[in-house]
Amino acid sequence: DAPKREWSVQWSLRGENPWQRCWSWRGVEMAGVVQQLRGRFQPQVSGTTRLCHSACADRCRASFVVDAQRKFACSLPAQLPRRCPCGSKRLRLQASLADALESTETNLNPLTRVEVLSEALPYLQKFHGKTVVIKYGGAAMKDPSLKQRVVDDLVLLYLVGIKPVLVHGGGPEINKWLERVGIEPNFKNGLRVTDEATMEVVEMVLTGKVNKSIVSLINTKTGSQGAGTSAVGMSGKDGKMIRARQINPDLGFVGEVVSVNSGLVQALLEQGCIPVIASVAEDSEGQTLNVNADTAAGELAASLKAEKLILMTDVPGVMVDPKDMSTLVREMTIGETRSLIDDGVISGGMIPKVECCIRSLAQGVAATHIVDGRLQHSLLLELLTDEGTGTMITA
Predict the structure, then answer these.
(1) Which of 86, 157, 255, 274 could cross-link 231 (Cys pair, CB 3.0–4.6 Å)?
(2) Which residues lie closer than 8 Å to 74 by C-beta, 6 or more apart?
(3) Dist. CA 73–CA 79, nearest whole Å
(4) How far apart are the C-alpha atoms of 64 and 76, rounded to whole Å?
């Protein structure tokens, strides 16, 4: 008779293989029973819900009991062991930080709060004063609740001493406004064909509506929190920040980045501001060009010598099988990334993202990440937890 609950949880089994495979379950209902997903959990129901781990290399049958009457993440740290009882693997559930930040309830037990803070503290110390460039796009821009959570996370990162820089596109919003003015969106090989009329709409939407709405959300949040900072919106044209050249005349005014001048962004960071940058650039003759937001973010991260580049997407990360979450690649090097491209494992729209990461790493960025922007607090999970989220690419 337990009330229905929903939770999002990632279960990571360290050391099983080079990719440190991760399994995720979402939307599982607790109503005295637990839905079996992917065969990884075998529930046994009594007064509480028993989750049996059977993926251990030694095939042990260790069981972990979760109280069905309480919020899932809040009861985990006190009840789950750090290691499988057989001693062969280190187990960890990553849900406490996001849920603790998300929850407005007062029933979080003290141990949960202490464990959340103790896990985050080393990362707060490590990244204090460091610059993190975030490419913002996809579902996280379309869903108002996700949009607000990204803003909340940005402000939190600023408050703990991290310097966030946000670079954004705005494809869905551009398409909506093109339809309003009677221009049909046209794509070729995944790239938007941008004639003069389309370029006018692109610039208007990205540097006007989208950019200023993000700035407004951040400034409203910082004002209510007394954060002592403000967001400043701009495009790649401001301060001659991003210079580009036309890729292909057949694509119209679509550009590729050729140089970045990050002086203006650096000055804003030193003044305690949060830069919000639309992915619009210009060429040497002043012609406005539409550039890929991933590429713009990567090149800007390299110019700023950022600690991290985080690309927010609509997928969990790099997966060997896009339909199987268990094949998520947790961490890989540049060499391993190139091998996966050559083998056809990384294909389609993921290729430009990982290539963007590789270029950034080659130019001095310490680490790059591809994370699921649909996951609540994905930025905080990546930066402030042991397990992180998505795929990390390092040199």
Answers:
(1) 274
(2) 96, 99, 100, 103, 105, 107, 108, 109, 112
(3) 10
(4) 9
User: How much is the pTM?
Assistant: 0.73
SS3 at position 283: coil
Place of tokens 């919003």: 173
How far apart CA 135 and CA 381 sit, in angstroms, is 16
**Rounded CA separation 239/217 (Å):** 24
Separation in Å, CA 27 to CA 8, 72, 154, 167, 209: 7, 12, 26, 31, 34
Strand partners for 309: 133, 368
Q: CB count, 10 Å around CB of 148? A: 13
Question: CA 30 to CA 26: how far, in whole Å?
Answer: 12
Model confidence pLDDT, tens digit, residues 111-148: 777 777 888 889 999 999 999 999 998 878 888 888 99
Rounded Cα distance, 94 and 385, in Å: 8
- Name which of 379, 389, 382, 394 is nearest 147 in CA terms: 379
Q: Which of 17-26, 83-92, 300-309 has the lowest mean pLDDT?
A: 17-26
pLDDT at 287: 95
Token code pair at residue 121: 């503290």
Q: Is 138 left (phi over 0), alpha (psi -120 to 50) or beta?
A: left
| Distance in angstroms (rounded) separating the CA atoms of residues 142 and 147 | 7
C-alpha to C-alpha distance for 98 and 385, rounded to whole angstroms: 10
pLDDT at 190: 67
